[in-house]
Amino acid sequence: MSTCSEKEIEFSVFLIHHLAEGWKMLPAKVYQILTKANILDEYIIPSYECLHTLGAEYLIEDITELVREKGVDI
Q1: Range list of H helices, 1-74
Q2: Cα–Cα dist 70/67, whole Å
Q3: Does the pTM of the predicted model rise above 0.85?
Q4: How would residue 2 be classed by pLDDT, with cut points 50, 70 and 90?
Q5: What are the angstrom distances between the C-alpha of 41 and each of 15, 20, 24, 46, 70?
Q6: Spatial distance between the Cα atoms of 17 and 10, rounded to a whole number of angstroms
Q7: 61, 18 in Cβ contact below 8 A?
Q8: pLDDT of residue 1
Q9: Do residues 19 and 65 lie in contact, with contact meaning Cβ atoms separated by under 8 Å?
């Protein structure tokens, strides 16, 4: 992961835990999926300023769609 602010890290953890709940898997597995697909470094962290203003439900749907577009089964 690139150099991140504390806010970006806290948001990433928040998002990983919400995705884990939505995807019915452990947060560690969600982290692996997001890093393998480069979603954490290429989307979540760079888009923090915009994404952190959105609701958890929308974010779960958005990230789920992005992961599927990258060919990852969840």
Answers
A1: 6-23, 27-36, 39, 48-51, 56-69
A2: 5
A3: yes
A4: low
A5: 14, 18, 23, 7, 14
A6: 11
A7: no
A8: 45
A9: no
* Amino acid at residue number 34: L
Q: Residue holding tokens 């990433």?
A: 12
Q: What's the token pair of residue 6?
A: 């504390």
- 3-state class of 55 per DSSP? coil
- Tokens at 50, concatenated: 């915009």
Residue with tokens 């769609």: 65
Tell me the CA distances in angstroms from 68 to 19, 28, 39, 54, 71, one per residue in order: 13, 18, 11, 20, 5
Contact in structure between 39 and 66 (CB atoms under 8 Å): yes
Residue 26 structure tokens: 């452990």
36: its two tokens: 């393998």
Question: If you search the block for the tokens 């915009």, which residue do you land on?
Answer: 50
Residue 59 has pLDDT above 90, yes or no: yes
